Amino acid sequence: MIDFPACAVGTWAWGRGMLGSKMIFGQKNDSETLRQTFRTACDLGFTLWDTAEVYGMGESEKILSRCVAEARAEGRNIMISTKHMPKKKYTDGSVREALEGSLSRMGIDCADIYWLHLPNNTEQNMREFAQLMREGKIRAAGVSNHEPEQIKLADRVLREEGFELAAVQNHFSLIRNDAEQQRIIEWCHENNKTYFSYMVLEQGTLGGKYDDEHKFPVMSLRGIEYNGKLKKLRPLIDMLRELGKKYGVAPAQISVAWAVSKGTVPIVGLTKPKYAEELAGGAVLKLADDEISQLERLADSFGIVSKGVWEPKVERK
What does the pLDDT read at residue 51? Predict the structure, then answer.
């Protein structure tokens, strides 16, 4: 099994065009700033970079490829995590086609961890994952946005093929701390799997920069999703700010530290060098037990459970 770091860097906001940074986040990111962000993060010890074929419809992988090539030429140890978005109807060879497309865009010959992005035809897809693992094109296999029984199915199929599931990557945050995710995290710990938490900052909602007086770009998908919730969430945002001042870190890193405290590996998106510097503090920060409890009680009191349109129904606590 791969020894994963305590925190991974996400590149969802690195893509352009359909499902890219402008559409999702309401911002444009230039390649040179992203390159400097990558180098700063590497200098600070971040080694695992997460992307997907659908992030900017492959553009995120292309931008990341140039950064990875430079880093590896300098002898840096960089790990790549990318994902296959399965169609509703399985087609034999579809995983191979998707993986080879991702590897080509990134200029690499192996994915350190490759994910099934949605739980479509999990058994057939995992058997194809296994064949690609035999060929050395995938080091470790994971599933994303899967429910408990789907996760267990993926692990069983891989075990039948002589491998095992390495990790789960699901939506988890202070406002997505539901009963099902808690059960999945517990199962992962009991079965030597790594749980990667994505959207820990809820696309910036739990980062301290935005609130009901400073909203997201109106026409962005995150603006559509979160702007109407910012006023209700203001007390939680203010608590994150207060704890940030106490520990001398950015408010976003309190959210990251909370996710680490729950036994998860947070995937945090970075688009500027200063954010990499901030993330370095949150990845090692230890919150007090009473602070964790206070954050959770306050977050639960709003009755908000964040859910992406791509995700299954959420079970409340």
Answer: 98
Q: What are the structural domain ranges in the chain?
A: 8-301
101 neighbors 58 (Cβ within 8 angstroms): yes
Q: What is the dihedral of CA 249, 254, 257, 262, to 10 degrees?
A: 170
- What local confidence, expressed as pLDDT, does residue 1 receive? 75
Neighbours of 269 (CB within 10 A): 21
List C-alpha distances in Å: 202 to 62, 90, 166.
Answer: 25, 31, 25
- Average pLDDT over the chain reads 93
With the C-alpha atoms ordered 266, 267, 271, 273, is the resulting torsion angle positive or negative? positive
Relative to beta strand 79-84, strand 48-50 is parallel
- The amino acid occupying position 78 is I
Residues 167-198 have pLDDT tens digits of 999 999 999 999 999 999 999 999 999 999 99
Listed residue (140, 158, 154) closest to 194, CA to CA: 140
Q: How far apart are the C-alpha atoms of 144 and 268, rounded to whole Å?
A: 16
Instruction: Give 111-135 pLDDT, tens digit per residue.
Output: 999 999 999 999 999 999 999 999 9
For residue 26, count other CB atoms closer than 10 A to its CB: 18
Amino acid identity of residue 178, one-letter, is D
What the block records as the tokens of 205 is: 């909602």
Backbone angles phi, psi at 187, to 5 degrees: -60, -40
Token pair belonging to 159: 């075990």
Q: What CATH number belongs to 8-301?
A: 3.20.20.100
Q: Which residue has the higher pLDDT, 64 or 21?
A: 64
Q: Distance between CA 225 and CA 227 in Å, rounded?
A: 6
